[in-house]
Amino acid sequence: MCRGAACSSVCVTRPGDKPVPDLRTHYRADALSWVSAPFPKPADMSNERPIKLLVTGGSRSGKSAHAEATARALARTVSFIATARVDDEEMSSRIVLHRQRRPEGWTTIEEPIALSSAIADALRERGTERHCIVIDCVTLWLFNVLGLNEMSGPDNEPPLQIERLERERLELLAAVRDCPAHLVIVTNELGSGVVPMGRLTRRFVDEHGWTNQRLAAACDQVVFTVSGIPVTIKPAGRAA
Length: 240
Prior knowledge:
240 residues, Rossmann fold, 7 strands, 40% helix, disordered N terminus
């Protein structure tokens, strides 16, 4: 709640209006409490069968916060698999914000490529009972697997690691299908705008879309986040 003159965030008001807080500041300070109240819980949350949930959406749409809120509601123990690599100061700042938002009791596994192995490690460490594994996110994982982080400039375009991608993707899909614990996967929704001009960008968007389709088919439920609002686009029990 905004505290008027005592509020540290920038508020936009009109005469007679109550102060409206700048959501950027409040979201970063307490993202889970802001998002968790309205989010629809998975339909089978009360059942013993593990939930497989894919959360997709655009940049800053509330994907990660919704995934984290869902994990907190599903399980007593949570393993968080982070796929980001710290390549620059800006990415480092983003990672710090995400770490601050996660509860202290969660186990974090940093794995940029071998997600199937990371899932197996999480299961060995925390078991399956009331355990949820969160993967955040598929987009950065795909970037790493394809070797795009190894480029040094526009003239340095090594061959994309397509064979490695297909191998890792098949292993990930098998791990998702066989996972005996709750599983929440975060990805981005790309390709809704114009067709990219660059060859590598077009291939990345294509592979990303194909990966999302296969993950959506493997998961029980799919949620699309828009402006912080989760919208269920594949309810539980619906065939892919």
